[in-house]
Amino acid sequence: MILQHALGLMTHPDKEWQSIEKEHATPTAVIMAYTCILAAIAPLCAYYATTQIGWRVGDGDIIKLTSESALSLCLLTYAAMLVGVFALGWMIDWMAGTYGGKHENNAASGIALAAYSSTPIFLAGFALLYPVPWFNLLVFVAAALYSCFLMLDGIPIVMRIDKDRAVFFGGAILAVALVLLVSTRVGSVLIWSVGFAPEFVGG
User: Fold this and answer.
1) Domains: count for the chain
2) Angle formed by the axes of helices 67-96 and 41-48, to 10°?
3) Which residue in 24, 76, 107, 172 has a CA-CA distance of 20 to 30 Å to 130?
4) 141 to each of 20, 134, 136, how far by Cα in Å?
5) pLDDT tens by residue, 95-122
C-alpha cells in the first residue's frame, strides 16, 4: 500500500526511495492514495484545535475561531497543499532534463518526489492539536528541514541524476518551493481581503 511509504521514509529513507522508484506509481495514484490523505492531517487538526481548544497570546484570553471561519480556512489550506505538491512535482520534472535527469510526459517521478518528500510536513500537522505557537513553529521547522533532507536524498534515486548534479538540482527545487510558499502567503492575504478573513471568538 502506498501509505506504507510514510513510515519507511521516516525510518529508512534510502531503502524506501528505491522501493518508490521501482513502484513508479502514476501521478493520480500518488496524489489520491497518498497526498490527499496525509495532507488532510493538518487541516483537520487545525480545525479541531482552533474551534475547540483555542490558543493564548501572552497572558491574554483564550482565542478561538468560529466554526464557519475555521472550516473555510482549513479547506483553502488543504487545496493549497494539494496544488503546491502538484506544482512542485511538475516543476521538478520540467527542470530534470537540464540536470541530466529523466523527463516524463506525466511527470510521475517529479510528483512522487515532491509528494513523498513532503511526508514530514504532512505528519507535523498532528502538532496543531497542541495549539501553542512556539511549539508549532519548532515542529514545522524541524519537519521542513527533514523534508529538505528527504528531497536531496531521493533526487539521485528517483530522478536518476548523478549525486554531484543532484545537489545543484536540489537547490533549484528548494528555490521553486520557496517561491510557491511565498505565493501561497500572498494568496492568503488576497483571499482574506475578499471575505475569507478569520473570525475570532473568545474562549
Assistant:
1) 1
2) 160
3) 76
4) 25, 11, 9
5) 998 888 878 888 999 999 999 999 999 9
* pLDDT tens string 41-95: 999 999 999 999 998 877 778 889 999 989 999 999 999 999 999 999 999 999 9
Full residue range of the structural domain in which residue 19 is found: 4-202
Q: Which of 35, 110, 113, 24 is nearest to 80 (CA)?
A: 35
**Per-residue cell: 92:** 521538478
pTM of the predicted protein model: 0.92
* Axis crossing angle, helix 4-11 with helix 13-23, rounded to the nearest 10: 140
SS3 helix, strand, coil % of the chain, rounded to 5? 80, 5, 20
Per DSSP, what are the bridge partners of residue 55? 63
